[in-house]
Amino acid sequence: MGALSRALILAASVFLPSAGRADTGASDAQRRLERSADRAVAEGQLAKARDIWLQLWQLEPSEKAACNVGQLAFRVADMPRAAEFLALCLEKTPAPGGGEARERYASRALDLARARQEVGALTFAVPQGAQLSIDDRPIGRAPLAREVFVAPGSHRVRAALDTAAREAAVEVRAGEARLVVIDLAAPVPVADRRRQATPRAPGPARLMAPAGQAVVPAEEGPAPGLILVGGAATAGCVTLGAIFLTESRGHERRFDDLIARNHGGYRIAGAELQRAQNAYSAMERAEERAAVALIAGAVLGAGTLVYALLPRGRGPRLTAAGPGLGLELTW
Length: 331
Fold this sequence. Notes:
This protein is of the alpha+beta class and 331 residues long. It has helices at 2-15, 28-42, 46-59, 63-75, 79-92, 100-116, 190-196, 224-261, 270-309; strands spanning 120-125, 131-134, 137-141, 148-150, 153-161, 164-172, 177-181, 206-207, 317-321, 324-328. The two termini are 55 Å apart.
């Protein structure tokens, strides 16, 4: 009895959040599948229950089926499918009014957020009507109305429209969202695509260009122009600081001469006193300007050095394929 009670509690935790046990218009086949899913959950066979609910989703893409597939996939660590169906579940779920409905919605949203951190999300910029596939698995025709979730790692994306077909190698990390751009302006024979496909380091998707057209990767590393500008600005600030320091020393000598001519300042008065005050004020102003210029030079120099020497992630990448250009960013 204890084992049976635990099984019933597990089944309730998965299925109670959905809309009723069986829809009024559900067919006998659907009701039999739902009972089979109930039994699989009661026996702890969550992966089997997920597969049964996938069959129910194919029969009728309902909120109940989407939510159950998403929740079961999450519990068996099938994160790409969990993210896909939990997103569909929340799209189909009406706005929660309060109480239990709000808590149920929040629980599903939390599961979706956790699943998204474990997968990569792909969106596509391809000609309308192109048939898309990932690793030879069809995912539909463009434009897709949703993100496609994949396991972290390397994937091969293919787009085909009429006689044109192109592929892109995509490296995606957990929690990363990527845009895949594929130009189908010029068809590429299958043999050419196989010859041109080469392993590459993780980064933005690379288009496989037709023969005679090169893919132009962006330069990685520091931009020489920025380093030159930083160095010139640093040198200018240091030079300006040195000029102000020289000016300050000149005013200081003038002030010292005035004090010395008047017996150390004990008898200074009148015009001599005014000249001494002016010299001292000019000395202070020059020192302040020198300090500002030298500090600015130090900051610019340090920033330029850090920019030039420290490692960095990939910057913008410009790719050329046929008549099209693609700009991609990784951050």
